[in-house]
Write a structure and sequence with these properties.
Elements: E1 7-17, E2 22-25, E3 30-33, H1 42-48, E4 56-61, E5 75-79, E6 92-95, E7 109-116, E8 120-124, E9 134-145, H2 148-153
Antiparallel strand pairs: 1-2, 1-3, 1-9, 4-9, 5-8, 6-7, 7-8
Length: 169
């Protein structure tokens, strides 16, 4: 079987930067619905098209096609008193970015604390991998026809709102 539209593809992967440093060695494989459903970067989906189980390949994804270019305007300095007492570099907060254009109702920005002083906090709204070209090492481990449910949903993953929270451990 080949990777084609409306197949579910399972891929073992590693992510490297352009300098050859490993960023992630995934414990769990990536499982996605192939065919333009938005579950993976387009460059990866395009590279996997027509491939078969056990094929191995490298795919380079440029910043603009991954997590975007680094945007210096997404660095903000805020007053320390606006944050919780216990605050550390690396903590993340959700917030609405300061923009002149109106936002979609569900659009929020993840802000990472990159600096803390006595009276100021530095926040970075960029994704941690923004501005970095990524090299994916991929090995296709399974391909199957998508179910009707998956096709209706447009994803292999169930709608998180339909999961019973009591079933999560």
């Amino acid at each position: 079987m080949q990777v084609v539209k409306d197949t579910v593809v399972t891929v073992k992967y590693q992510v490297w930067d352009a300098q050859g440093e490993m960023i992630q060695d995934a414990d769990q494989p990536m499982v996605y619905l192939h065919g333009g459903y938005g579950d993976v970067f387009e460059a990866i989906e395009h590279a996997l098209e027509g491939r078969e189980v056990s094929e191995e390949l490298w795919v380079q994804v440029e910043p603009e096609d991954a997590f975007g270019e680094y945007d210096a305007e997404l660095i903000q300095v805020e007053e320390r008193h606006l944050f919780p007492e216990e605050l550390e570099v690396g903590m993340q907060f959700e917030g609405i970015p300061e923009q002149e254009e109106p936002l979609d109702d569900d659009e929020v920005q993840i802000w990472t604390v990159t600096g803390v002083s006595e009276d100021k906090v530095v926040l970075d709204g960029n994704h941690p991998l923004a501005g970095i070209a990524l090299r994916y090492h991929l090995i296709i481990s399974e391909i199957r026809i998508a179910t009707e449910e998956e096709l209706e949903r447009g994803s292999v993953q169930p709608d998180p709102l339909l999961i019973d929270p009591g079933s999560l451990h």
